[in-house]
Amino acid sequence: MKMKSPFSHRSQGAEVAIRISVREDHFDSGEEIKLLHESCNDVGGISVFVGVVRDINDDDAVSGLYLEHYPGMTEKQIRSIVDEAVENWDVRAATVIHRVGQLHPGDEIVFVGVASSHRSDAFDACEYIIDFLKTRATFWKKETTSRGDRWLTTRDSDILAADAWKDQY
Amino acid sequence: MIKVVFFANLREQLDTESLRVDSAGVSDVRGVIGKLSEQQGEYWLELLTGDNILVAVNQEMVNHEAMVDDEDEVAFFPPVTGG
Questions:
Q1: Minimum-distance CB partner of B79 among A70, A76, A154
Q2: How far apart are the CA of B82 and the nearest CA of chain A, in angstroms?
Q3: For B38-70, what is each residue's pLDDT tens digit?
Q4: For the stretch A58-68, what's the b/e string if a residue is b when 16 or more beta carbons lie within 10 angstroms of its beta carbon?
Q5: What is the DSSP string of A108-153?
Q6: What is this model's ipTM?
Q7: What residue ranges in chain A does DSSP mark as E strands?
Q8: Structure pTM?
Q9: At A163, phi and psi to the nearest 5?
Q10: Contacts with A151 from chain B: Cβ below 8 Å
């Protein structure tokens, strides 16, 4: 596990454009990047993470992935994770979109986009947001495989990734 | 009344999405669990006090000592797997 980057300073006084959406509909990454760019000034770079439904997990062929969530709580938690990223890095705009409901292999599940003045802040804030979304946000995945349905459990690697940020506090 | 909600495989194991519990004599999460096991049986106690089960009150993560008032919403769920 690589070391997590240190927090940089936050730009003082500037408005940060934050967009969070939890919904069934698919998203268009290109469109979202364009919106991020247009939503703020002083953009030096935009960092993006897109999560995709795998077609193989633990050697079983996956035919479906069902995402359950806790309406209300999920959006609040994502917002607080984004607020933390804004606190710790120079973030001009951030967008988090997470799909729920029935998805299929190859579907894009999650979009995290961060616009900053500097690329290191964009990379780091984006990584922070997805690391904590995976260990904190109230979503649960249920896979349909050739061997039946199963609820996924939190991966050790995801826990380690989130924990590694704690060295920065 | 206290509204209690369940998610994911815990919801499936309990075969219950949500129910209401009388707040009389209940002051914290432990009290909610106690009342639910009185009403629903040992199996519920076992599942709700399972190692990995997380709790939220009014959509904020808490532990079992957290206070619960009348009209609060208490949620029990397994570790999260989003992203």
A1: A154
A2: 5
A3: 999 999 999 999 989 999 999 999 999 999 999
A4: eeeebeebbbb
A5: EEEEEEEEESSHHHHHHHHHHHHHHHHHHS-EEEEEEETTEEEE--
A6: 0.95
A7: 17-23, 45-52, 56-57, 60-69, 93-99, 101-103, 108-116, 139-145, 148-151
A8: 0.91
A9: -60, -35
A10: 8-9, 78, 81
